[in-house]
Amino acid sequence: MPELYEILTPEDPALAPYRQLTGRQLLGSNLFIAESENVIAAGLEAGCRPLSLLMERQHITGKGKGLVERCGVPVYTGDDALLESLTGFRLSRGILCAMERPAPLTAEAVLTDARRIAVLENVVDGTNIGALMRSAAALGADGILLTPDCCDPLQRRAARVSMGAVLRIPWAVCPQPLAALKAAGFTTAALALRENALPVHDPLLKQAARLALFLGAEGDGLRQETIDGCDHAVIIPMYNEVNSLNVAAAGAVAFWELFGKSRA
Hints:
With 264 residues, this protein is an alpha/beta fold. It is 33% helix and 19% strand. The chain contains twelve helices and twelve strands.
């Protein structure tokens, strides 16, 4: 049985990763925090080395028992109020795991043999990143490219919302995704409100041998240079004077139409 430690003070140096998980500090530490059984299991399947577990007491011999045995790392626990003061939030799933980040992929590695790619430009909300990556993985994308200003997919909330999909679909940060995709022979499409945009169900899009769909930032959408540089602009037909959807919802619709149906 792994060693069990009762937390006496949140200032314990061994707990540093859990104190920092609400900020960007972990990006430079080669660590990420996996929250929930699904994300931790996905990390283990992806070969990420667990370093420690933090969990509510009841989960040690309850729903977290299998993870405790599987990870074989120190387990930290304490009163709920102490855990909340340590992390800055109430543990919604009751289990956290500090893990080593997987080795980053290059854009070239993600694009090799891929036919359908999602590209996320400056999407900064962790919930949206997680939902987009979960939808992309579920609905037929072969990989994902993100611009450097996007939220880190391994940020705690993003990974949790993705249900571990961020560890199951290839992705890479790419400063110039349009150039990389053009060089790899992809047809590029920008999801954008333009008068000359093709409806998302247009056969021309589905017939593309290799297709990359660009989705932009919350509120502002894609940069004008990106839209101008893509081969096509694409819209989702809408009704009742609604002209746009949240980027995660729009992505799910477009992925199903352009990626999922192409695999049916």
